Structures are given as structure tokens and as C-alpha cells.
# Entry
Amino acid sequence: DREEEIIENINKKYPTQKEVKVEDDKQGKSRKRKSEEVGESSKSRSKSSKASKSVARSVNYWAEVYLERERKWICVDLETGRINAPSEVESRLPKPIFYILAINNMGNIKDVTKRYASNFMTTTRKIRYDEKWISATLSKFQQNKDDKESKEDLEMEKKTEEAPMPTTVSGFKNHPLYVLQRHLLKFEAIYPADAPPLGWMKSEPVYARECVHTLQGRTSWLKEGRVVRIKEEPYKIVKARPKWDRMTGTMVKDEPLEVFGHWQTELYVPPPAVDGKVPRNEYGNVELFKPWMLPKGCVHIPINGMSRVLRKLNIDAAPAMIGWDFSGGGCHPMYDGYVVCEEFADTVMDAWNQEQEMKVERAAEKREKRALDNWRRMVKGLFTRERIQAKYMKNQESSA
# Structure
């Protein structure tokens, strides 16, 4: 059919090195040796010439053809005539490999580095820029994905995942599939502890990246809306980050910090409101890092500046702390409105709306009063000018 005809024409037009060698042998290009010394020297020269010819020239451009029957793209080396040999194309590419881009007849650009870079997971991925930035940049030169592109992406992902395990210790660092114990960060750990290794690297077990979990302290888990279960032992003890002690005026370092995994925590359940009193922490605030941290029977009103209205109504309320602000060389709490009991929410909002209406009226009265004062000042100035002109300018005219 048409595809086989195209491949046959390419083979005729660009014969391989093996076919060229067969043609040379048919033409009978051979030389007789006159002596052993001449023979040995010619043999050495022929070896060096063959070695020089065997060194392939680097390639930066080649073609890709889509086969409708097999529904996949194959590479075609236009210099050597080799078809569907990505490993040979890779061997002739300039090193290191950063990006390999494919441009179709419509002008669309696609990143196909994973198809040719056999060391994509270990070497190429680390020297490239952020993958999200690359995708966002190339998305401007791409159309909507169809089934053909989706299948191509799955094939390239499958090829990278089927790549063999790295053979060096440095190859495991930041690898998306495998990890060594020595490369874990301070707040990372292998879970479960008896996870089976996938292999060995110089007598050191190799674990799956899926077994790596991030650990956090009790305070950090509370910011995520979770608390450590009772009687849970810390999964790991590390040195806490240095922090400034305001009482002593010194920097506290190397304090032990107990860290726990997600499997050792549960959702935070806040205490309910009782007798119209809002439950709060030791600092008088309600920690509202997540929506489910709102106490039962309470309402969050995200309006700042209500303290005057709340004092006037004598209603119990607590500021809602939603996070921390790390600016100005310190750590400061961030507030967003107040937390009040449900039965007082309507009363507070009505009083707040009335306060805002009165505030607008006071602002309008103040603006009107300022305008009237300005007019009064201007009119007085005009009267003063008329009196001065009538008293002094008339005498000057009469003397003139």
C-alpha cells in the first residue's frame, strides 16, 4: 500500500551504511599486499579509516511520519535512511539534551523529548526549566488535543516510566519514581516503615516515591485543620527551626520537634458555644484556618471594625484568626472579622447596618457644613474687598 511504497522509496534514496558496503564489495575494490610489513601497515590504515568513517555526524534535524495503521509517530533519519530507530537518533544528538520539539504541517509545536531522551528521568528532567512553564509556553502553538495527541502523550509517559532504574546514587536524587533513604529531607519519611524495597543500590534499599510522606508538627497540622490523635507516638524527632525568644532576647536553636504523619491525625472538632459565649483559645481568638474549625452554634461575620458595635450591644464575640503574616521581620496573626453566636447574628448585622447609615449621614453633614463654611468665608472676603475699595480707592480717584 501507500505506506510501504513510501518506506521503499526512502530506502532506495538513502541506503544504509551496510548496503553501501555490500555495493563496494560487489565492485571488487581490494588491494594486494606486497609484503607483511606493507600488509600490516595497510591493515592499520584501513582500521583507522573505518573507525573514522564509523563516527557518525551529529544531527539536529530529522523527520517524523504518522502511520495510520499503527496509529503512532515514527522517526526517519534522512541522512542514514534509518526508520523508527529513536535510540540511534539519540546517540547522534548533541549532549546534553534539553528540548526536542516537533513541528507539524499546521505549524503546531509539541515537546517530544521523552520519546528520544532515554535518561529523561535522571538527567534531562533536572536540567530543564519548570515543566508547567514549558507547557504554558507551547500551549500557544497548539490546538485542542484530540485522540491522536492523547495517545501519543500516554505512549511517551509509559516509555519514561518503563525506563530502567538508575545505576548511580546521584541518579536517585529527586527521581519521580525511586528514592534512597539518604536523599530524604528533614520533614520526610518512608511510610509504612516496613515498606518492601524495589531494589538495592550498593547494599542500600531503593523505595518507591509513593512511600515518601511529609511530616509536620502539632502546630503545623492545626493550621491544616487537623490534630494529632491521642496517645500517638511521634513518627520522627527533628531539630526545630530557629526562633526568636522575646522574653530572653536570644535566638533559640536545636530544640527537639516531634513530627507526625497524616495517618496519625484527624479532623479538628471545635468545642460548641454555650450560653451565648464563643469558645476561644488562650489568646482570646478563634482559630479559623479551615471552614470546619468554626465552633458549633456560631457564625463567622467577615467584617473588620465591628468592635464598637459589639461593645455597644454587649454581645460576646471573638476575632477570627485565619493565618499568619510573615512580614516586617516577625510573625503576626491575620484576622478576618468576628465570630458570634447564631442567635445574635441578625442583631449584630442590623446594628452594623444602622451604624454604617449613620456614618454616611454624618459624612454628608460634615461635607455640607464644610461647603457652607467655604461659601461663608468667600462671601466675607468679597464684602471686605468692597469696603476697602469703597474707602481707599475712592479717595485716590478724587485726588487724581
